[in-house]
Amino acid sequence: MPRYIRNTVILAKIETAYGVDSTPTGAANAMLVSNVSINPLNASNISRDLIRGYLGGSEQIPGVAYIETSFDVEFQNGGTAGTAAAWGQLLRACGFAEVLLTTPSRVEYTPISASFESATIYYHDDGVLHKLLGCRGDVTIKASVGERPVFSFKFLGLDGGISATANATPTLTGFKTPLIVTDGNTGDITLGCTYSAGALSGGTVYASRGIEIAMGNKVAHTPLLGGETIDLTDRDATGKVELDLTAANEVSFMATVKAATTQGLGIVHGTTAGYKMLMHAPAAQLINPKKSDVNGRRLIGYDVRLTPSSGNDELRIVAL
């Protein structure tokens, strides 16, 4: 009987003890994903390199191994302001703290530098279940004009085993249809802004083609006798923007680049409470200016470095 890629179900749940199966369920922990992939055994194969009196290769013995998976999840709040969306479990396993706040009701995610959480991921591949334990990962946020905004996740996990198991039945009602990144749905990029209590203030708005932000988490498998782990050891958040600037703007921005100036950067996507997403970086540095041609229009692109201001604050993601 053939098996089909679209018959894939992914479940994820934060672990209470590192590497101990948190037993995610389809009813409570299913993820609505796209662009899925898995490397079911990333192993360091060790050759025996035997000499046997004749030519020919030796078999290899699997050494230390882990599992990799990647997938996209739509960058969209879950419909109720102040209630954590289902994808919050994934951000927490990427080195973010999740805090539920009021006035206004919102959920804020900020990076952390210690006490990292981990997740169990069940990857149901049309009748085959791969269990990934102790998962930690990296995330890139892509919000380009004319596209649906997404979190692109990549996780490493310990090998929790493989079995022929019927797919879990996913409940996906917690995921809402995203708004496409358009002029009506997404605010301009604001530079020089500050953030407080669910809102951006100050700064200057610029028309853009959207934004991409990569957290740049350094995630690695550490094999140890007596306890292997997936470790998150550093991060280096970066981004990309293309801005529609006046001639005077371009000249002043070049001075900013040359002076290595940092400034607030923010953007809001969505228009209705429960369906809004905000991102703010307090100390963004524009580097590597480049000119681009978009339908004959001159735009100016920049790479962006997102640096901490007071620590563990280089990017704040707010679901409103």
Portion in helices: under 10%
Q: List the secondary-structure elements in sequence, H or E.
A: EHEEEHEEEEEEEEEEEEEHEEEE
Contiguous uncertain segments of 5+ residues: none
Q: End-to-end distance, in Å?
A: 46 Å
Tally of individual helices: 3
What's the alpha carbon Rg, rounded to whole Å?
22 Å
Mean pLDDT reading:
96
Major sheet size, sense and barrel closure: 17 strands, antiparallel
Question: What is the 3D shape?
Answer: globular
Structural class: mainly beta
Number of strands: 21
Descriptive key words:
globular, 320 residues, two-stranded antiparallel ribbon, mainly beta, 3 helices
Overview of the structural elements:
- The chain contains three helices and 21 strands.
- The chain is 7% helix and 52% strand.
- It starts with 7 loop residues before the first strand and ends with a strand.
- The chain has a 17-stranded antiparallel β-sheet that branches. Strands 11-12 form a two-stranded antiparallel ribbon. Strands 15-16 form a two-stranded antiparallel ribbon.
- The chain has helices at 26-29, 88-92, 247-258, and strands spanning 8-14, 30-31, 34-47, 60-74, 96-101, 106-111, 119-125, 128-144, 150-164, 189-191, 194-196, 199-201, 204-206, 208-214, 218-222, 229-234, 238-243, 262-269, 277-294, 297-306, 316-319.
Question: What can be said about this structure in brief?
Answer:
With 320 residues, this protein is mainly beta. 7% of the residues lie in helices and 52% in strands. The protein is globular.
